[in-house]
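Known limitations

Structure tokens in this collection are predictions and should be treated as such. Users comparing against experimental data should check residue numbering before alignment. To illustrate the layout, the record for Protein kinase domain-containing protein is reproduced below. The input appears on top and the generated tokens appear beneath it.
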Amino acid sequence: MSNPRQGIAGFRLTEHTWITELGNWIDAISPDGRRAGALLFDSRIIELPGVRERVVSAVLTDRRLVMGGLGGLIPVADVVAAGEQVWLLTAQAVTPTLASLLAAGTVEAGGAAAVLADTSQTLLALHASGVTHGSVHPGTVVVTADGAALLSERGLADAIRGEISPPDRDVSGWAALARGLAGACQRGAPQAAAAFERAAAAATTHGLAAARSGLLAESHVLPGGMITRDRLAQAARGQSMFAQPAAYGMPAPAGQERDEGDIVTLLHVPQGRESAGRTTHAGQATTSPSPGGGEAMRFGPGVGAAGQESTAQRIWREGASPARNGRARAVRARRRRTIVSALVFAAVMAGAVLAWLRLGGGDDTPVAVEKVTVTTSEKTLGCDSDAFVSGRIDTNGGAGEIRYEWRMNLDKDVEEGTLRATAGTTSYDVDLTWRLQGERTAKATATLRVLSPGPARTAKTTFTYKC
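Generated tokens:
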């Protein structure tokens, strides 16, 4: 159950949280009672020079694409600053991910084919619009309650690194995704697994469009002879962290609104475009001015000839020409305002997020680690592949700091991490993406070790890298 005292900009935070390279993701409930997501960026990352501006630019790019009719992405509701914290809020749930479903062993061949079909279509549309995703792996694939596969975190990894990923990186990520799903389906549907392997090979040699066409042409090898989503949707609903969102989404009684303090929206969008220019904080819609320039727009393969461009491309072209649109004024200082709304939950109060970060909740029980588990869906990986390893740390529900590390035997690499355990939360996901390269055949072992609080606990998983 969620802690009613935790919230940001009208979004209510739950106990389910997991760590990524970006920061802390948290399952949330939006002000209107729907499942949503909240990402608290790692302060060590978001405060690096230029990172905040590039994150905002990436989100604004997504908005223009969505306005042009591109689907397949997790929609971002807002990016807000609360003191020194920066949050990204989504208008849709960001769980379960394909990584968690694979770890649970609930992805069958028909659902795997649906994931590959959906994600390849989204990537092709992105590339045709001149942008890339930059970080395609099972942890950024979200499966909805109806079995659709959406991509999250588009452009955010690039924004942090200060780079623009080429389309080939997305293609390689999709091919690794196909190989991972082939491994997961090998025992129950070997013919389908072979088709996924062929799709992965086609992607790297002939391109994503050819791979998708070949995959769809081979749907007859799937159980039942067609791509199906029913079992994938059932698995996704079974792993949802909320039984009924409405139970958490009831508006606060009249006269009990709470002031969350100053929260600044970082998404300054063009005026006169209501669908993109409205941001929601605690149920209150506001329109923010455009900052003008600052976004690097580009068009790649798939841009139509004059008079034939898509709506998304036209919006992109207009957004890249601030002078022509009368939006060339300088970026004004971020507007600070207080969010007050009748939809803010009665239990949300000022300083909730700060209290959450400071081991909050008022519970003085220190955190103790009870169990550590590590799983991976891949048994064998091919040349230059990404291994996606799922780690989980189970605790007593106390509050405190947990320090852990991932060790990878083949590369002698060590990735250290720290998370804040909150009172009442008993499990934390700490996933690892391990890039394996070179020509060799070796036994790969990923080890998760909790350093503190003691005593140290360790779990590991092993698979084969063969190239």
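For this record: The first helix runs from residue 43 to 46. The chain is about 30% helix and 25% strand. Please report discrepancies through the issue tracker.
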